[in-house]
Write a structure and sequence with these properties.
Strand content: 15-25%
Protein name: Phytochrome A
Strand order of the largest sheet: 1-2-3
Largest sheet: 3 strands, antiparallel
Pfam families: PAS_2
Organism: Epigaea asiatica
Structural class: alpha+beta
Distance between the termini: 34 Å
Order of helices and strands: HHEEEH
Radius of gyration: 15 Å
Helix content: 10-25%
Number of strands: 3
Length: 102
């Protein structure tokens, strides 16, 4: 949702306006360069779910999100969950380490 990213959202769209977010939106336009690079690198792994959660930051507001990646037949689905203010952000390395210990 645009409001979670602190992006400008018009109450009444103009003719010819395109939605800011939607299916097929390039993540490089939404997240910081390091975050987009991390997501792109993660897409190369066969077991991408082992890297969950992936910490990313919004380009416009700097807000942190967890990217939860799911591989389905022929596609990748990414869920974005906001990091709650009281949570200590966890990186993929921390999640993978927890998985190895389990």
């Amino acid at each position: 949702a645009p409001e979670m990213l602190t992006m400008v959202n018009h109450a009444v769209p103009s003719v010819g306006d395109h939605p800011v977010l939607g299916i097929g939106t390039d993540v490089r336009t939404i997240f910081t360069n390091p975050s987009a690079a991390t997501l792109q690198k993660a897409m190369g792994y066969g077991e991408v779910s082992l890297l969950n959660p992936i910490l990313v930051h919004c380009k416009t507001s700097g807000k942190p999100f967890y990217a939860i990646v799911h591989r389905v037949t022929g596609s990748l689905i990414i869920d974005f969950e906001p990091v709650k203010p009281y949570e200590v952000p966890m990186t993929a390395a921390g999640a993978l380490q927890s998985y190895k210990l389990a």
